[in-house]
Every structure is written in C-alpha cells, then in structure tokens.
Amino acid sequence: SELQRSMSYKVLEGNVGYLRIDSIPDQEVLSQLGGFLVTHVWRQLMGSSALVLDLRHCTGGHVSSIPYLVSYLHPGGTVLHVDTIYNRPSNTTTELWTLPQVLGERYSADKDMVVLTSGHTRGVAEDIVYILKQMGRAIVVGERTKGSALELQKLRIGHSDFFLTLPVSRSLGPLGGGSQTWEGSGVLPCVGTPAEQALEKALGILTLRRALPQIIQRLEEALKNYYTLVSRVPALLHLLANMDFSAIVSEEDLVAKLNADLQAVSEDPRLLVRAIMPRENSPKPEPGANEQLGTLPAVPEDEAARQALVKSEFQ
C-alpha cells in the first residue's frame, strides 16, 4: 500500500529505534489505520532506548496529522498548543493542540530523540521538525530544511490553460515566540551535517548521550576520592546530580559545560575535565623496541580485570 511505501522502521545497533516517514497521510487515514500502525510499527519501537525519526525524504503531508504525530512524543497528562494555522481563502485560523489521549503508548520523554533533515524536507514535515525542536523534544541533525509553504493550491488564471500555484496557508507559531517561523527560511539543524551522513552522526550523538550517566558517576567518584578542596565537594556533587545535559551533542559540548560549571562552583581554575582521544596516528614501535622498553602487559581476558585496568589508567 501507499502507507507501507512511505513508512519503514527497524531497531538499530545499540537498541536505537529508527522510523522513516517519506509522506505524512491525513488524520482520517491515520485514524482508520491507527490500530494497525500501533501494533505493527509503534510497539516495535517502544522498547528502544532512543528514537531516530528520519524526515530527510519527506516532501508532503497533511496539516491535520501534526497533532497526531506530535502527541506520541509529548508526555501524557497535559495538552500543548503547538501551532496556529492561518488559511487565506477562508480567512480563518485553526489552533493545533496535542491530543489528551492516544491509542497505545506515548514514547517516554526520558528517552532521547533525533530528527534527521535534508534540503528536501519540506511543508508539513518542516512544521513537525520545527515543533519538536522548539519543544526541546528532539535534536535535529542534518541540513537546513527547504523553507517551503505549508499548503499550496493550484489556481486557474481566468479561462486560460495557465495555472498559478500559491501558498494559501501558513504557520503562525506559537512555539517560536513570534510571527517568524520556518517558512521561507527553513529549520536550522542543531547539528549541521550533509544529509547522507546524518544517520551516522545521530548514532554517534546517541552513543555519547548513552554514556553520560557513567561519565558523571566516574566524575563524582574522582571528586569524592581525590579532590583536595574537600569542603567544596558537596556543592560539586550537587551540581553534577542536577546538571542539565539536554543540549549536549558532542564531547566538546560536554567538556566545555563541565569545566565552566565545575570551575564556577569550586572557584578553582585548576579543576579541569579533558577528553583524551585515542592516538590513531601514533607511530608504530620499531622492531626490537619492546626488548629495549620492556614488554607491555597483556590485556586481561577476565571482564572484571579489564575494568580494573581501565579504572587504573583513567585520568
């Protein structure tokens, strides 16, 4: 069916859910097929640890579906005014709100989400990207979107064989905090990268974010066990426990934020976090180097011993 051709899903390595939508059907179709979609698509992604929504090839859709799609990514218990659409021919405005109830489950707000975009992403898909970005619900990765019109209408010029295609509806916000929206300018990604590399970039971001709890735990242990300004440790631990990492999309972001916040609380410019990268281009030892420098110890086969070795070398 057309719906099957325009939508696909899978679970990627690292338990990352991947949903690609190339065309967004109208609300009537989604209502009729809602049970099928929830059972055969959505439930397969609910157990994932993070979600990638791929809209790089989405070039069409219906405004009526915006509340339906956004609602599955918005926490239950509250409704959110996500957009107001102005229609010129009828001179009317329509408010779009998330739904108070959805069929099946909503995707947990505690799980990370990435939306992939390209220069071909346009129309209703752009509005969805814009809404999710302004909500703070998704990290947008890829290219600036097309900046197309929300809805086009083909009009005959008099009784001739000539036609004019005009934008007849536009988004008024309200999440952008003003009349300026994505139309004409497109939606800027949080992380800009060529569209063909966007999925790989997104998976790298999610890998880093998945490691954040362990990184913070190691920092807390290091502060408790080694930091000489003992009186400042409780404030530093409180800072780490309550730090907002929602905007972290790279190791550079993480290092900059940790250093700025830790130094501000400790008033100690010597307190530094660094990311030590693997030395991929390090020169290989010359033959006989091991005999001169001593043989390197073998990596233990036992997992616990390997972890102990890592901890002993961690700085």
UniProtKB/TrEMBL annotation:
InterPro entries in alphabetical order: ClpP/crotonase-like_dom_sf, Tail-specific_protease
A molecular function GO annotation: retinol binding
Spans annotated as Disordered: 278-298
Keyword Transmembrane: no
Keywords: Receptor
CDD domains linked: Peptidase_S41_IRBP
Sections of the chain in a coiled coil: none
Entry's Gene Ontology BP terms: proteolysis
Span of domain Tail specific protease: 1-194
Gene3D superfamilies assigned: 2-enoyl-CoA Hydratase, Chain A, domain 1, 3.30.750.44
Cellular component terms per the entry's GO annotation: cone matrix sheath
Pfam families: Peptidase_S41 (PF03572), Peptidase_S41_N (PF11918)
SMART domains, sorted: TSPc
Tree of life domain: Eukaryota
UniProt protein name: Interphotoreceptor retinoid binding protein
Organism: Rhynchocyon petersi petersi
